Amino acid sequence: MKGYLGIDVGSVSTNLVFLDEGGTVREALYLRTNGRPIATVQQGLSEMSGCLPARTVIRGVGTTGSGRHLAGVITGADVIKNEITTHAVASSTLVPGVRTVLEIGGQDSKIILLREGMVADFAMNTVCAAGTGSFLDQQAARLTIPIDSFGELALQSTLPVRIAGRCAVFAESDMIHKQQMGYNLADILAGLCEALVRNYLNNLAKGKEILPPVVFQGGVAANSGMKKAFEKELGFEVIVPPHYNVMGAVGAGLLAREKMSGSMPTGFKGFRVAGTEFKAGGFECDGCSNLCEVVEIYEESDVIARWGDRCGRWSGSLTREEKIS
Amino acid sequence: MTIKIGIPRALLFYQYFPMWKTFFEKLGLQVVVSGHTTKGILEKGARLCVDEACLPVKVAFGHVAELKEADSIFLPRLVSVSPGEYICPKFLGFPDMVKQCAQDLPPLIMTNFNQYRREGDLYAAFSETGRVLGSNPAKVYFAYREALRAHKRHTSLLQRGYMPEDAVKLAGEPPEKGSLEQEDVRSRPVVAVIGHPYNIYDGFISMNLIKRLEKAGFRVVTQDHLSEETLRHHAGRLPKKLFWTLGRNMTGGALHYLSDPGIKGLVHVASFACGPDSMTGELIERFVRRMGGKPFLNLTLDEHTGEAGVVTRLEAFTDMINLRLASGS
Lengths: 325, 329
Fold this sequence. Notes:
The complex is a heterodimer of chains A (325) and B (329).
Chain A: E1 2-9, E2 13-20, E3 25-32, H1 37-51, E4 57-64, H2 68-75, E5 79-80, H3 83-94, E6 100-104, E7 109-115, E8 118-124, H4 133-142, H5 147-155, H6 168-180, H7 185-204, E9 214-217, H8 224-234, E10 238-239, H9 247-260, E11 278-284, E12 293-299, E13 302-307, H10 315-318
Helix pairs in contact in A: 3-9, 5-7, 5-8, 6-7, 7-8
Chain B: E1 4-7, H1 13-26, E2 30-33, H2 39-48, H3 55-65, E3 72-74, E4 77-80, H4 89-101, E5 108-109, E6 112-114, H5 122-133, H6 137-159, H7 164-169, H8 183-186, E7 190-195, H9 197-200, H10 209-215, E8 219-222, H11 228-235, H12 245-258, E9 263-271, H13 275-290, E10 296-301, H14 307-327
Parallel strand pairs in B: 1-2, 1-3, 3-5, 4-6, 7-8, 7-9, 9-10
Helix pairs in contact in B: 1-6, 2-3, 5-6, 11-12, 12-13
């Protein structure tokens, strides 16, 4: 079999997909990044190679997510793309005709508006992570509810309570307040979902024209309570597509497929990199008062990439420029 | 030994530096400028400055502190640079803030620049500066005329499409020598960047926004490349007069570029904690939507902004433009 790999290294999860030559998702992996992106990518690669038949040929690799450059140099990616573009590509391929993409991931949330298959506008949350997956994760942990059953519980609510969703810190104290007043858990969870949706629509989607079909993707789309809250607020159906939690990786794979469809050889280093030793080192450059913290990525004893400098003194010295752009 | 006048590379430097430089040089003084913004300059500035100020003011403090070696630092109290309009109140208070917060500085030249009533009141400001320096009034008048000429030339280079610092470099040469005259630069798709000059031209504050766009294959224009008449005409389309000069320029520039089919996208750069920016940003965004939705990106910057966030948004923005160009719409 021949195909393409898509890798999305996010703050919370690292996802890998394998697409066949027709662009269909054959294998998908969803792993927790656990703060160790390099090790997680390696683990993902070794798991992926176990899932694929022997003698599978990888014709191209695409990486995305906040760790895209890191994953890119480790695997030898052919395409390194930002997560907004990859999410848009994936949803417009899997849900033809989609006009709005709501994406909520671990640390960020996005809204992408597509018109006639093209990105027309987008927004991404700024420094504040209120209303993202991490916050839901944290609240689920506080209430000792497995995150997988969060949505189900929220759906049992008959009367969601009103919770302030503007800020994660305030939302938490509001939730505790409601819980101490004796509201039942399902109503509090459903209220939290509604608060997050309100926050999302008022901040990120402020002034944006949300037209159906609307696709809801990212890790948080697993939460059926969130889907219901979106539908209640928007007044129409929200589609959670197949592979909703690995859409970034699907998009990266699709872009790799598009770029490598000719006879270009891939830069993929092979599944062997799962066993190679990668290390990150670094130093503070003293070239000027910017004092940039330069990160070096080692493959065994060789430096394969450097970044973190503002002027390009280090990053320009060895990386393959055309890929890190 | 010639007296050294220090000018911080901050705030209205990008618009007025050639004028100020020429004035002092014609009086026989030497002009020194602080270097490009670095993390060190920002940190120094943030330490000296009051906490509530916006990022560019903090950066400006850092630049002033870089000029300790100068004999005097030129910190004009900029009240108004255009009749009937004001400059941000922080500019008006800047020299006094510096005086209060920073010690061990050389003497400050804090002349008032106030053209609120008349354009011609500019001479009063220069003549006052000359008096402070103890220069001969006739010489001051001559230097002032030369300064105006330098400013006019700077403005015309900007209107030709040069970025302020390139225009400063080109000051002594014929404009045909500039990099913009090459065919391949002229034929690139054009993106407009709208923002306060001290944000968009400062590579540190803007995280090299303009360079990044150029590297991605675009030519960048800003509101400063348009003539005063164009800016006024388009700002005049608003139901009410904007009385901040910079906000008026930005809005006028954005409206002009939005109606220009040659412009493929628009970036608005705002400083976090800037009141006028939050308003112009919102105004511009509404006009973008009303006028057919060109690709638009609103970037808000502060000292905590990570480069990764800016890069991701910028890449998505350029992808959006490129896909549209490829599809021919």
